[in-house]
């Protein structure tokens, strides 16, 4: 293992924090544009359909970004003296308090006592994406489905980090290509082998195809492991010098390709390479001290709020459209104002989650405990994070 990999002191990556909010915003606009569940507020059919088309792949791209980023950041920040249990505790405290708060808010605002056990229980424990029934994996606060995959990533990371760190530098590119190839293979299997009915609402595929090709947590592991390998490449100085602007342009090109290819291949296959390039370009800019707008105070604040914003946005959209507006549609200028107000509302709720839920929970339960830092001499050795094979 090279010294760069073994060292616990690595440069911080603030620009990736700012970039997280852009990905979360893509998910917001995707949900706000949906017509089949009446989130789209525009009365003009041309404007409504244009809004839906423009952001029809934005949610897929934003979630794929989060999955790759998770692998990248966890690998980048992994410390040799960390323990598996300490890592798991911090990760659980990162996602569950906000999730439970938004889960409860969804129950209060929308579900009441009518939600069946088979829906609320898997959603509470973040296992809903393991069920092919869309009433389960897309029930309650819909964006929380992605946390099922994140939870799987966190549980497996201690067992993956050792093998990933032991990959020889010259083999890293081959492993990265293998992860991208696996994403293609997943969609090929989904396309040709998944049951051909029933249709999934709002998509061009079936319920089984959408669940297996998009929601099923194991198939999203390839993006996470790709992120881990990308972190190795950047740490080793083996990633080519690609600036942020060209990488962002490639993301736009990848998005255009996603709009053009068949539905399943627009979920993550068309955008995975540009997303990977952008993450690495932004990380390298931070390592080299290159100024970026993503490191500014505003973008840093937005990045910190992004997790709460991500979990809150569907609640705000649904409450605004169903309760406050009763699914009414509006002239284009008013529709734009509605979307802007919904965005601001989701941002405000995300900030409240950060200040009132996420930060207090992290301060109380996520810090390393004294006994983890200085165990008694006769205590059994704790399993170390980067030593697990």
Please characterize this protein's 3D structure.
With 389 residues, the chain is mostly helical. The protein has 16 helices and no strands. α8 (145-165) packs across α11 and α12 (244-260) runs antiparallel to α13. The longest helix is centred in the last third of the chain and has 35 residues, at 332-366.
How far is it from the N-terminal to the C-terminal residue, by CA?
14 Å
Percent helix = 55-70%
> What's the average pLDDT?
91
Largest sheet: none
Q: How are helices and strands ordered from N to C?
A: HHHHHHHHHHHHHHHH
Shape: globular
Task: Give the topology.
Elements: H1 3-6, H2 14-33, H3 45-54, H4 58-77, H5 84-111, H6 117-124, H7 134-137, H8 145-165, H9 172-193, H10 207-215, H11 221-235, H12 244-260, H13 272-287, H14 297-324, H15 332-366, H16 370-373
Question: Can I get a quick summary?
Answer:
By secondary structure, this protein is an all-alpha fold. The chain has helices at residues 3-6, 14-33, 45-54, 58-77, 84-111, 117-124, 134-137, 145-165, 172-193, 207-215, 221-235, 244-260, 272-287, 297-324, 332-366, 370-373. It is globular.
Please describe the structure with a list of short key phrases separated by commas or semicolons:
389 residues, mainly alpha, 67% helix, globular, disordered N terminus
